[in-house]
Model the fold of this input.
Amino acid sequence: MAKITVHPDGFIKRNYIDKLGLMATEWADVLEVSESILSRLIHEKIDLSPALAAKVSKVLGSSAESWIAMQANHTLVRYQAELEQWTPTKKVIAAGLVTVFV
Done:
């Protein structure tokens, strides 16, 4: 069963930008980022960086750690689905690298 996660920027868009009727240009101005970067964030084309998480935390009053945790969880779940299909061909044990033929 796939775990559902929320991208922090989608959360911000739904809970702040849309609810408060903010324009993306206003939000970009508040965070002091370009409209291009903000657009890519809102449309989940790029991940929330630690620097931007710190800015968001100051503007919205929540911790930067909570925003980073939300991003990390979203990213991890996204890649776990892809990695379910991957089987490593080598493993590391105490004696060193071992080639595994599967």
Observations:
- The first helix runs from residue 8 to 20.
- The longest strand covers residues 90-93.
- Helices lie at 8-20, 24-31, 35-42, 50-60, 64-83.
- The chain has a mean pLDDT of 87.
